[in-house]
Structures are given as structure tokens and as C-alpha cells.
Amino acid sequence: MPALRCIKFEDNTLHLLDQRILPTHTAWIAHSDHIQVAESIRNMTVRGAPAIGVAAAYGMALAALNQADWSQAKQTLAESRPTAVNLFWALDRLDALTDKSPESVLAEAQAIEAEDLSMNHKIGESGATLVPEEATVLTICNTGSLATAGHGTALGIIRTAHQQGKVKHVYSCETRPRQQGLRLTAFELLHDKIPFHSIADSAAASLMRAGKIDFVVAGADRITANGDTANKIGTYMLAVLAHHHNIPFVIAAPSSTLDPNLPTGDHIPIEERDSTELTHAESIQIAPDNCPVYNPAFDVTPGTLITAIVTEQGILTPPFNIK
Q: Which of 32, 210, 246, 272 is spaced 20 to 30 A from 72 at the CA atom?
């Protein structure tokens, strides 16, 4: 079965799989300039920190091809979403090029995509060594091929461990309010024929208390010097529960997600998204008129609750001192 992809660059056009309408509809959106790419990052046509970084790199390639103002294009893309550090890592990497010709920038964007895919396979191999035999694994959000250049980070570990015969079953949190777990992770697990159940986010505690979870793994959008990790809202809750029930809690991310310039998670900017993500379901209002809403997209898990952080460079364990 062919591997899932969410990013394609062909004929000087960036094609992004529209993840807002998966799994019931499949559509690729063509992008011919960096402004369109920035909007697709903002509206979550493309999402997942590594995939955002790759998309932003191709956005700069389009800016170079269109002879757009370099600094303005970089700023437009940088302002699309504030939390995922991979976005800024990719932009800074391209900004450091001495040759900013369209050919050079496109080649670097393609290298970023290829490197991400390679890093994810290495994360899968390293992380699988932490997974117990016959494990039932819990995960949140979507951290697979739809969130990266391919294979995935946390879901990449699950994929690799399943291929090794170590994963018996997966419980995938629905991931309110945008349901990335229910819509996207379920889509990927079905594609790979990995046994699973989707669950309400609030069901995780009872599963752990019943002894039905052996291993918890999540992705990351930014990891600070002390191991504090920003990830999809609800991740911190799982870490607290795993700690209470003495279950390994592992973070998986490429090194481009590490941000040693920030000492702790207190310095991570947390994106707050539109209230309609909570008040509406499939464009149908389900909350009272004028209902006040607090809708952070991410939370921060303290490094003290994390058993290990897996990158393509290997496995980090506490106390974390990321440089």
C-alpha cells in the first residue's frame, strides 16, 4: 500500500492535501505564491509542526520564484502560526543561504523535506526500543504522515513498533476541538491496518486506571532547554495521568522542534484559536449565543513528567539539558 503524503511540489506549484476535510473527502490545494501558503498554514489546511516547516520552506521557494520581497515573504510566513518552532527553524535555515536564487532556495526546501522523512524513520527506530512487547499504546492528536514529510514522529514510533510485532493495540484520543485524532490518526491507522480504538479525550484516565495502557507517546511543537514540551491541548493532562499510574510518557520530535534558546516552557507563545472551533460542529452552532470561550491550541508539559524525548539523534532522558 503506498505511503500517505500531505505535501507535493510539482511544476513550480506546492500542492497541499486539505486536512480540514479528511477523512470523508480528499482534495489537493494548489499554491502558486507564499501568501497562499501562509493562509493554508493559518487555516490548518496543513498542520503538524514538521509539515508546517516543510510547507513554509516551499513557501519561500515560491517567493523566490516569483521574485517577491524576501523579508516580507519571510515575515508573512512567520506570522502564520506562533507555536511550532519548526516553522521558524525552516525560515531561518533558508534565510542563511548566501545564494537565494530560485534554484538554490527550492533545492534547500526539497532537502528539508527529504531530511524530515529520514529523521522520522530514525525516530521510529529509536522510539520503538522503548515500547514494551505486546503493548497497548495511547496517543493524542495526529503525528503521522499527515503531520510530517512521511512516516511520522509519535505515530512513526507506533508504526515501527507495530511492524516489529510489539504493538498489540492503539487507543487514539479524539483530540478536541478539531478532532485530529478521530479524523486523521484513525485514517492513518486504518490505512496501515494497525488495530485501534478512537476514544473521547476524557476516557484516557479510566483506561489507565483499568491497567489497559502500557505506553503513552505524543508529538511536540516546541521543546525548551529543560524539556518542557508544547503540544496539542490535552497532552499535559495525559502526562499527569501517566505519571500517576506509573506509565511511560514519551515525546517524539525531530531536532528541528528543539528550542534551546528558551529556558522553560513559560516562554513558549501559546496560540489561541477562534471560538467557533468550540461553539460550532461542522458549521452548526451547538453553544448558546454569546457563549464565552477559551480555546488554546496547545499546552505545555513539564519536562519532569516526561520519561524520554526521542529525536533522530537518539533518546534523551531526564534531567533534560538541551543545547
A: 272
